[in-house]
Amino acid sequence: MADRYLVPCQCGAQIPVGVHQAGTEIRCQCGAELKAPPLRKLRELPLEESDAVETPGANWSVRKAVASSLLLLGVLLVAIGVQRWSVLPTVPVYSAELAKQNFAKQLEDASSSDLYRFWINFEMSLEDGGFKPPEVDVKGFYEDRREAALNVVYALFSSGGVLILIGLGLFLTAPRS
Ligand SMILES: [Zn+2]
After folding, report:
1. By residue range, what is the domain housing residue 34?
2. Where are the transmembrane segments (predicted)?
3. How far is the CA of 4 from the centre of ligand 1 (A)?
4. Which residues surround ligand 1, an ion (CB under 5 A)?
5. Does residue 177 have a pLDDT over 60?
6. What pTM was computed for the model?
């Protein structure tokens, strides 16, 4: 698009004038007719900022800023996700041998009143239909913790991924200027 220079009218409007119009009669939107300055003088006037060129450029820089921020935020979320993932709580492996040892140690360390209480419980379990070791769902506790932590990781990965995709989409669908 050819450059156009802004010729001021006495009404205050600026008339865009192409170089081919230098020295010719031009008409302002107010109706006044005036003579466009010769080419040498015309070139000293401010250039018209062309909407057709400037607006997509401005949109593009805003879009680029938004896209970059989204990409950055997305990468950050995924990075936090990777970090969280690397420190996931582990579920201890259940070992009957280890449980037996712990139980034996508890018996050794127990006071006489502890032992009495244990005996009462033991008797009650017997009456309830046989002795069962106390059910403490240690494995379930760790599994729940691990699952909650994994859900946070998944949320970070998916939201980060969505942001990255939107950012890339903004970059890829950008108008070529
Ligand atoms: Zn005018």
Report:
1. 4-48
2. 65-85, 152-174
3. 17
4. 9, 11, 13, 28, 30, 32
5. no
6. 0.47
177 is a domain residue: no
State the distance from the centre of ligand 1 to the C-alpha of 8, rounded, in angstroms.
8
Residue 64 above 60 pLDDT?
yes
Ligand 1 midpoint to CA 37 (Å) = 15
Query: 47-56, 75-84, 97-106: which range is least confident on average?
Result: 47-56
Task: For residue 19, report the distance from its CA to the centre of ligand 1, in Å.
Answer: 19
Query: Are residues 58 and 33 both part of a single domain?
Result: no
pLDDT in the model for residue 122: 75
- Spacing, Cα 146 to ligand 1 middle (Å): 75
53 CA distance to ligand 1 centroid (A)?
Answer: 26
Residue recorded with tokens 């593009």: 60
| Percent of the chain with pLDDT strictly greater than 70 | 88
One domain for residues 31 and 65 = no
Amino acid at 1: M
